Task: inverse folding
């Protein structure tokens, strides 16, 4: 095992014992390891993560946000009769009581309790399971309802500001840093044709039609742990981007990932479609929890959230491809371009099914 990792692990307040660690999960951002301790009493697992410093310019602020959010959630979960050690993340402290360790390279590391007997899916599953993940993300939003949003740092400025994301893409085009511009003309035309629409949600917010809430902002399927036996949502994880946002962001990002009939990086675009049964199932689960606190206008704008989060994510993948793959982890040449293409294909399918998407939400 990497001796650096061992020395990092030892700096947290953890039991004595034999330690092993291996890379874990399929996140695109942080470096995640599953750490196992073998002691006389048995085995115990923890999650160790190196926070991505390219993505999070102020990692201490991210840790600070997570401390506040998990502490708040622990109180809510206890009041609702749940188990806070399973239903929200628990940061492991150092002996000095800090919740991170900084190594010699200046990298920030954190450790969480491993939430056992759960699964996280990297691919869309059945509508029934997707409905349960909708319930979990909806519950998260409802439970965060009374949290003082102004106490959170903005971990990534303009994270879901779709017009700002469009401008970042245009900036990447102007710089053409990796010299890849000529191969992406068709994708850029696709975005340019939808520039006006990128404003739909921020305009509704600006006009006071919908409220700012504390949202998760990264609600893809593998950011919720489901009970391994029952499939029920146990814990919403990956709290790095919990910030003020719109209900439509959380709804939309889940649909973008989980109602796609193919993987996010599928190269055969004929496999990429919007599954209306998955869309409906998620909407039902999400609204059963978050719907209790949402206004009519917010609910009406959920389909727009699905479309804009998909378009926005496609623009982010495309910009990263043009910038030379600095932000998202890539595992093959052209990986970000493949991801961008699936997103744009999905947007096209949403446009073709737009009336049905509106109708499903109306009906629920
Ligand atoms: P990233 O920001 O890179 O996506 P995540 O925080 O989502 O990183 O973690 C990556 C993966 O590790 C998750 O998708 C999940 O499978 C697993 N994971 C993270 N935290 C825990 C935890 N506390 N217990 C069990 N599994 C976890
Ligand atoms: C990243 O961290 P992860 O893999 O759960 C990204 C999301 C994107 C997603 C696309 C902090 O999510 O915004 O939607 O990849 N997270 C961050 O798969 O940028
Ligand atoms: Mg994640």
Result:
């Amino acid at each position: 095992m990497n001796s650096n990792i061992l020395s990092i692990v030892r700096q947290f307040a953890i039991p004595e014992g034999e330690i092993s660690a291996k890379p874990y999960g399929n996140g695109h951002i942080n470096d995640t390891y599953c750490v196992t301790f073998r002691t006389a009493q048995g085995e115990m697992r923890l999650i160790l993560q190196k926070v991505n410093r390219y993505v999070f310019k102020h990692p201490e602020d991210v840790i600070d946000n997570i401390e506040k959010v998990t502490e708040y959630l622990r109180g809510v979960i206890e009041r609702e009769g749940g188990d806070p050690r399973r239903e929200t993340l628990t940061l492991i402290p150092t002996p000095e009581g800090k919740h991170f360790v900084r190594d010699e390279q200046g990298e920030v590391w954190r450790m969480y309790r491993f939430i056992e007997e759960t699964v996280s899916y990297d691919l869309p599953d059945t509508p029934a399971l997707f409905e349960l993940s909708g319930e979990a993300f909806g519950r998260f939003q409802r439970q965060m309802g009374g949290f003082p949003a102004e106490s959170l740092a903005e971990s990534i400025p303009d994270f879901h500001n779709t017009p700002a994301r469009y401008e970042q893409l245009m900036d990447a085009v102007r710089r053409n840093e990796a010299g890849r511009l000529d191969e992406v003309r068709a994708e850029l035309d696709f975005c340019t044709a939808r520039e006006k629409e990128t404003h739909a949600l921020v305009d509704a917010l600006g006009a006071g039609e919908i409220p700012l809430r504390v949202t998760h902002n990264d609600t893809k399927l593998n950011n919720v742990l489901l009970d391994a036996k029952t499939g029920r949502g146990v814990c919403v994880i990956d709290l790095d981007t919990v910030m003020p946002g719109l209900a439509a962001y959380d709804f939309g990002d889940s649909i973008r990932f989980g109602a796609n009939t193919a993987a996010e990086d599928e190269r055969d675009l004929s496999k990429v479609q919007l599954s209306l049964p998955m869309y409906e199932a998620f909407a039902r689960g999400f609204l059963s929890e978050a719907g209790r606190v949402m206004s009519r206008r917010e609910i009406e704008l959920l389909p727009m959230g699905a479309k804009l989060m998909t378009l926005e994510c496609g623009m982010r993948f495309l910009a990263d491809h043009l910038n030379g793959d600095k932000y998202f982890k890539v595992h093959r040449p052209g990986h970000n371009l493949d991801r961008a293409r699936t997103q744009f294909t999905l947007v096209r399918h949403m446009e073709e099914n737009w009336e049905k998407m509106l109708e499903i939400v109306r009906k629920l």
